[in-house]
Amino acid sequence: MNCKKAQIWLQGYVDGELSPGRMQRLRKHMDGCSECRGEFSRLSQLKTLLAENRTHPAMEAAPEFFWSQVKGRIQGELQPRRAFRTQFSLAWPQVFAWAGACAVVMAVGAVVWMQSLPKPAPVAVVAPQPAEAQVDWIVTKGPDLYAQAYHSKESRATIIWTEGMPVISLEF
Length: 172
Description:
Layout: H1 3-15, H2 20-32, H3 34-52, H4 63-77, H5 92-116, E1 147-152, E2 157-162, E3 165-171
Helix pairs in contact: 1-2, 1-3, 2-3
């Protein structure tokens, strides 16, 4: 135990208010600490001195006047006080009315907020024009390689054939 904690407990020890366990711990500490023993001695002497010189204070007024004042205060306190409810009860119609009002206010706020948001610029949608391609010639690896191009207007695709196999298909 340190001296700081012991000094906190000393007044309780002098008054006999400490538990037996704390009293024993404090006695052990005071056996080894002269400073705390000295403080204990001073507190004990102070308590003795106060007990010896205790005087009864004189009443400033006559006892009858004093007791009439006490009686008046007691009677004043006996007047009915405003009773506070100890239970909390909900009036459901009022709760629903407040909830509905809050919902309406929130909905109006949401509409106003959404109206204040910036609107995106309109985008012009242009229909894509079909691309037209025309194959004028086909270059092959050698002169004996046969190639041919075929274009379909219905599917808008051009297919290039070499030696009976499709090599490339382009869609426009």
